[in-house]
Amino acid sequence: xxxxxxxxxxxxxxxxxxxxxxxxxxxxxxxxxxxxxxxxxxxxxxxxxxxxxxxxxxxxxxxxxxxxxxxxxxxxxxxxxxxxxxxxxxxxxxxxxxxxxxxxxxxxxxxxxxxxxxxxxxxxxxxxxxxxxxxxxxxxxxxxxxxxxxxxxxxxxxxxxxxxxxxxx
Length: 169
Hints:
Elements: H1 2-18, E1 26-33, E2 42-52, E3 62-66, E4 69-77, E5 81-89, E6 96-103, H2 105-116, E7 128-134, H3 145-168
Antiparallel strand pairs: 1-2, 2-5, 3-4, 3-6, 4-5, 6-7
């Protein structure tokens, strides 16, 4: 039993020593948002970013929080490229800026603790913030082309019959 406890302590100490935290993070990001929603039910949001740390930390595990949702940040390559993606219902998605708050493991556990204890999650300082702009989705024309064609056909028919009745009277 004592060996198991000693092994656990060694494992925890080793993982803490090897885990790097990012000092003075710099983020450069690009984003994609679905803009044509004529046949879709959800809007897709995707942001890719590169994290540069002043201490040269690589492979930092990141988590994201957007509008109260927590998401994993997927590492795309060894040179600290990450991606965060999510979808929202067209009716709930708003146009404007979305703040994607990024947390390392320590910040993420503090965020989860704040949520679990009913505290304000904004009290936990994120590692970095990526701003994603949603210009809004095109939902289609105000009047469908089929409806417009039906109205035009009815108008042409009415005009033709009116002209015929005037000529016959």
